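WARN no homologs supplied; continuing
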Amino acid sequence: MKKIYLSAFALLLGSALNAQDAFWTETKYRGAFDITDNTAKTDWTSGWSNFDPENEVYGATTKTVDADITSNTTWSGIILLKNKVYVKNGATLTIEPGTIIRGDKTTQGSLIITRGSKIMADGTINNPIVFTSNENVGARTEGDWGGLVLLGNARNNQPGGVANIEGINPIEETKFGGNDDADNSGILRYVRVEFAGIALQPGKEINGVTFGSVGAKTIVDNVQVSFSGDDSFEWFGGAVDCKHLIAYRGIDDDFDTDFGFRGRVQFGLIIRDPEMSDAAGASNGFESDNDAAGSNAKPLTAGVFSNITMVGAKGNGTVVLPNGEKFEKAFCIRRNSSISVFNTVSTGWEKGLSIEGVAVEDNVTGDSLGFVNNSFVNYTTNTKVVTATQGFYQPWFGPKNNDTTALIADVKWADLFKGLGTKVDARLTAGSVIATTADFTHNKFKEKSASIAEVTVLVSEANIFPNPMNVNGVISFNLPTSSELTINLFDVTGKKISTLANGTFDAGKNNVAINASSLENGFYLVAISNGTSTQTVRLAVEK
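OK structure emitted
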């Protein structure tokens, strides 16, 4: 017998959601930086980043690595990386703070961490670990060497759950994927990756940093990718969380998500070079697909991003782009992706948000894709939201606190539009219109990492009937074991409308009544939670 306290089928205004997951740092400001205090304290790029690696003098190499690593190994000093070097057989590669790894151009030096192995690259703010080109000052350019590839055992949505990472001829060591979303590939902290991203196959490049099904126990924090010949960061499936990422003067996309990536990313800085775009395609800030076919393969690409500052190639609007450039969109969300973006500010792109295709539109209106509380600064008319009809954006874009009215003068960046090759200051100054407008109340911030929430399937056969609903209906679901559950109703902004049920449910089939009489037409989410995991079912109300 269920011990259940129903809400008498009434829809009551609820209290705030449970405390947000510890991953998120709740800010008052949109974008990646707070108001400056004129010290390094409020600028997380200080001390370890480099905005002029073309002219950085790196010492001569003291050791060459050109063979696979099959046992625990430690690197220090200045390493010459030749060939494709695989860390495999469960080995751990430890890289000491201050180590410099110079990738060889002739042999397309690359470092690949295979499934079950680890990289422990744990630099410090004063002694970051640097992966860079072995070319001399004045001769370095994007794609001088291969890049850094991490492959793990977390889930992706490719057939069979295991695939070969793109850009490298497929062998056993290039496989990624499995069933362990809590997999651990090691640590990347205070790490720079410069001049990587080479085409190892025609049209199939590896990126500055490539994550293939990397698990949630991996630590990624304070990582800069500069002058990548392809994407700066690309996530293929997996559930790794990342903080403090810099994508600087890359060729293709800055943040590219595919194949069911479900991790979380907070605090990022993107800066583009007007002379560097993808001649073979289109250069976007965010590019996101569920998979190449735009299928409904599970798990869906549903990463969550917050607090990103994005500067496109047009900079402050005075930059004239060269003929033949391929810059496109700040956000290109397509092929059934369900990524979510919050508290982010972009400027200098030719186009703003592009929601592409009916499947992605459904993800927006069904609220599996949250695009909330973002600022588009200095965009011209008809470039703020594109691809989908203006009628599609109108009901939700503005009501979800996405703003297109601010000008650069209103944002008051400290010193963001300095010449390329110079450290920027992306902090805000007093009076900025985005300094107090962040919001962390959306339900996406309350959920645990997708790596936890999706591994444990709370209930099966969860359905709402009728759906669409007019006045009365039922959500039904099966439980494998007796469980304490809370069932809440949310609107599409993440605001809790009511608690439908709270108590102990027996194993087997359960039904909870829903009364929609006081709900307006639109989409809602019914969330079933046991305190650590959450499953949601979309409810449509039509009267």
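The first strand starts at residue 3 and ends at 4.
OK
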